[in-house]
Fold this protein.
Amino acid sequence: MGSNCPAPDFIMVLDGNYARFLRLGIKTLNHFHPDSRVFLYDVSPSPSIELQEIAGGYPGVDYRYWPEEKWLRNDWIETLDFSYFFPGIANCFKYISRLFRHRVFGTMKEGWVVDKDEFLRKIRRSVSIWMQKAPCCAESLERSDRDIILLDADAFVWNPLDSVFLKDFDVGLTMRRLDDIRIGIDGGVRCAEPVPYHAINAGAMFFRNNDRSLDFVRLWIEKMSVTRYFLVEQTALALLVLEADESAFTAYERGIRIETDRAPIAVRLLPCEKYNNFYIGDDLSFTPDSVYVAHFKGYLHRQAYFSSLSNLVEQRLSSMT
């Protein structure tokens, strides 16, 4: 399933909370792309000893600490309050019910919100971390002489990825299932303006190493600075694409042309199910030979799934030897 294309380099932006996922994901990445460099950006509050230790185990991993004074910012994020995420009666009732059960009966399930301040602190920080993908990507494109793939720490290489760059694009973005795509007001949060809030997933992105990709990242940074939706980085991507082509999200493999002052940027929309598959159920089942990137996101982060995920990774690597 490989190709004659040069191996790409990779970018990961994460903090120490994702170290256990990095331990698994770096194994699969190194297996399929042993000659690639991995630009690992640590956005922890202070340099993570665990991330440095993992990076030190692989000669191709280039660890770099990314301190908060270098962070890309969107001041709107700091205005997010609890009512933004719990805007309706049903959501408020859910929170009150869980808070009551926690305080009275000591009941606590993974993922429950019972401390408003801690919830807001974590989510504001998470949103800010997601935004750092763009400046880290720009720096990596300048540090590398290869095409580059940006991966979330929980997005694992499942098949060789070099052949993706046989396609015609400067930037490759992954798009959700067509019947999942939503453009409008997201009723799950206090959203005042319509946005494409379920369209692009930013867990895997593909960049040709050229000036047009750098121009795209600059546009991405500009768009994030004015985006008023908590999934800032991927909503900004979707807005860039939709503004360039109002029919962008009607089919896969569409070639989108984003005009700039210098040269047009070619963006290709790739199917998530093949290039960034997060459609993975409780049993962790999917068809491995048709998936390039398996993205174990969201509820699969719970501790109950982690041993199964570890076994799945080992089975995948064993099957490929």
Q: What stands out?
A: The first strand starts at residue 9 and ends at 14. Residues 74-124 form one domain. The mean pLDDT is 90.
